[in-house]
Design brief:
Blueprint (H helix, E strand, L loop, with lengths): L1 E3 L4 H13 L2 E6 L5 H17 L4 E7 L15 E4 L3 H4 L4 E5 L20 E6 L10 E4 L6 H10 L7 H14 L13 H12 L3 H8 L4 H13 L1 E3 L7 E5 L2 H6 L4 H15 L8 E7 L5 E7 L6 H8 L2 E5 L2 E6 L9 H14 L6
Parallel strand pairs: 1-7, 2-3, 2-5, 3-4, 5-6, 6-7, 9-10
Antiparallel strand pairs: 8-9, 10-11, 11-13, 12-13
Helix pairs in contact: 2-4, 2-5, 4-5, 5-6, 8-10
The structure holds manganese (II) ion.
Manganese (II) ion binds next to loops.
């Protein structure tokens, strides 16, 4: 096992040794992909295919289909499956991006050592990583896309438009359109400058290609706004919470992906800006019977990554942006209101850990 925290020539040598010796490569990332996850798998695929056109490379997510990102190069190559483990034994190299534990890309229990496969991880999360043959984890990077820029694009004489768009898609996603940046992350600005210049990119035009939302998603945002309330629990910073009932989801035949998208827009718009309310989360019933949380926080709010981990949910993320799920036992259909009650009871018994 070799561990790196930054892209240097040693890491590049190691990385391309694995690529050179692999006959078939599986690129994957966490379930319910966000922009950085999707940008990372596409960027990796696109650049590797340019250098190794003959190699068998596939992008597979164990996730429900995702719509709305078809503008990006090679999005049509992304496969969404129910059980990625069925595919796993047909590859000799697994590259996991934007996640650093095996349970981020599959919900199934499995032991990686039972597969004859090399493993590479490229990520920027702070959570405790699993063991990979080669890993590069840099929690100071704004995004996995930034790391992949350094690995695949920074040495190029000129970055082509489609690759620049991908890298920018991921960076904008994980920085909240360049909002969540402090002095530890400001080295992203010259990268953004180069991507915008060489890609000839107008950011608002690019965003119109992937961030526009449908009336159905607007319905989700309206429902969340209507149902939102502020929770005041002793010792805890006030939190904005919103949820919707299973009846609302069924009546409007909303898909998991529409609920996620609406939830993210709601929390992005309203979750961190209310005076004296520094964190927020949404509670969402899912088609597989689970209930998922999406959480955002800011300074003076709660560390939402640790909140999810300490609550014992499946999931993870960053200190100020995380997600997690209550997993039902076989055949069970969890109720969002009961899950929220469970969270509130837990909060009453525990002390908050702030950002
Ligand atoms: Mn990321």
């Amino acid at each position: 096992m070799k561990t790196f925290t930054r892209v240097d020539s040693k890491f590049k040598d190691e990385f391309f040794k694995y690529i050179d010796s692999a006959k078939s490569i599986l690129i994957t990332s966490h379930t319910n992909p966000d922009p950085d996850s999707m940008a990372s798998v596409l960027l990796l695929y696109t650049q590797l295919k340019k250098s190794y056109p003959q190699k068998h490379i596939r992008i597979i997510y164990e996730s429900e289909n995702v719509y709305g990102w078809g503008y990006f190069q090679n999005f049509d190559k992304v496969e969404f499956v129910e059980n990625i483990l069925i595919e796993l034994h047909t590859f000799d190299l697994l590259i996991l991006v934007d996640g650093n534990t095996f349970n981020r890309f599959t919900k199934k229990e499995f032991i990686i050592n039972n597969f004859k496969i090399n493993t590479v991880c490229i990520d920027h999360h702070r959570s405790q990583p699993d063991k990979f043959d080669l890993e590069l984890i840099n929690p100071l990077a704004t995004s996995t896309s930034e790391i992949l820029y350094n690995l695949l694009l920074s040495d190029l004489k000129k970055i082509d438009k489609r690759a620049a768009e991908l890298a920018l898609f991921g960076i904008l996603g994980d920085t909240g359109d360049l909002e969540f940046i402090d002095s530890t992350k400001s080295s992203i600005f010259p990268i953004v400058q180069r991507l915008v210049n060489e890609g000839g990119i107008d950011i608002s035009f690019l965003k119109s290609k992937y961030a526009a939302y449908s009336e159905r998603i607007f319905l989700v945002i309206q429902e969340l706004t209507k149902n939102s309330h502020i929770l005041k629990i002793p010792d805890w910073p006030q939190v904005m919470v919103s949820l919707y009932s299973k009846e609302f989801v069924l009546k409007n035949t909303l898909t998991d992906s529409e609920l996620s998208q609406g939830g993210k827009i709601f929390i992005y718009l309203f979750g961190r800006s209310l005076i004296k309310v520094h964190w927020a989360f949404t509670v969402t019933p899912r088609s597989d019977g689970s209930v998922s949380l999406s959480l955002r926080s800011q300074l003076e709010g709660v560390n939402v990554r640790l909140f999810v981990e300490n609550l014992g949910l499946k999931g993870g993320g960053h200190d100020r942006s995380a997600g997690g799920s209550f997993i039902p036992s076989q055949g069970e259909n969890l109720d969002p209101n009961q899950c929220l009650d469970q969270i509130i009871s837990w909060m009453r018994l525990h002390q908050p850990i702030l950002v």
